[in-house]
Specification:
109 residues, five-stranded parallel β-sheet, 5 helices
């Protein structure tokens, strides 16, 4: 699975996903950290990446049937990198499965 990690999530999440066998980039790594959401959306779409984000805007775009990438919307409050990764670890296999089955929006609470 290919992921594009959005700005408000740590770059460590991209490394963590790569360690688990996925292709993952953080927007910082590709020069999009200060970019508008539309540019990040387009990049993900053009590269076949699912956006992993805490930004509700992307979820809303999917809900409104805007053509584009898949979105994993993480609904976790402010947390340390460690807490985020521990929280996400048991959820990752299900997320990947849902993405592979074609889900456009996965809301993770």
């Amino acid at each position: 699975m290919r992921f594009l990690v959005d700005t408000q999530l740590p770059a460590a999440l991209g490394r963590w996903l790569r360690e688990r066998g996925h292709r993952a980039e953080h927007v910082l790594e590709i020069g999009l950290a200060q970019s508008k959401d539309t540019l990040i959306w387009r990049y993900a779409q053009n590269h076949g990446a699912a956006i992993i984000t805490k930004d509700e805007d992307y979820a809303e775009w999917v809900r409104r049937a805007r053509p584009g990438p898949q979105v994993v919307w993480l609904r976790i409050g402010n947390s340390s990198k460690r807490v985020l990764l521990v929280w996400l670890e048991p959820l990752l296999p299900r997320l990947v499965q849902e993405l592979e089955q074609g889900s456009r929006l996965i809301e993770v609470r």
